[in-house]
Amino acid sequence: MIKTGLRAFAVALALAGATSIASADPIQTRQEMMKSVGAATGTLAKMIKGETPYDPVAAGLAMRLLFTTPSGFVTQFPEGSNSAESEASPKIWEDMAGFEKAAMDMQNAALAAIPTSTQGLDALKGSFGSVASNCKACHENYRVKKN
Question: What is the Cα–Cα distance from 79 to 90, expressed in whole angstroms?
Fold first, then answer.
């Protein structure tokens, strides 16, 4: 039987992924991709905080999502896709190389964390910090906070 946390994560991931694939609008696609990243990060954070039991399968799936998303995410920022409706900073288009590097740093951190994410809660805690700091760095530099 699938654990409740894993089931909720799988459902959220499937719904977000289906919406992303169906959308031709890059703003909507990247917003849906970030919802998937948020669900994966939330799953991991809840385990680390002790709010949900550690589940190696869910942790591994979440970390794999954090690994696979950045390479496709950076392709969703074509010229002219900046909008007041978006949290994407104009800096993305001004410094696309820096933005792509930030995404690849995130991807590399997640890749390094995939094996440890399934090796117990302490191992997950040890590897999650690098992934989270890469998320934060990208948000600080390439995201505009909405009120």
Answer: 11
The C-alpha angle 113, 117, 123, rounded to 5 degrees, equals 95
pTM of the model: 0.82
* Confidence class for position 27, pLDDT limits 50, 70, 90: very high
Higher pLDDT, 87 or 1: 87
Asked if residues 33 and 69 have their Cβ atoms less than 8 Å apart, the reply is yes
At the top level of CATH, the class of 4-142 is mainly alpha
Distance between CA atoms of residues 25 and 30, nearest Å = 9
DSSP code, position 116: H
**Where are the chain's structural domains?**
4-142
Separation between Cα atoms, residue 35 and residue 68, nearest integer Å: 14
The burial class, CB within 10 Å (0-12 / 13-18 / 19+), for 16 is buried
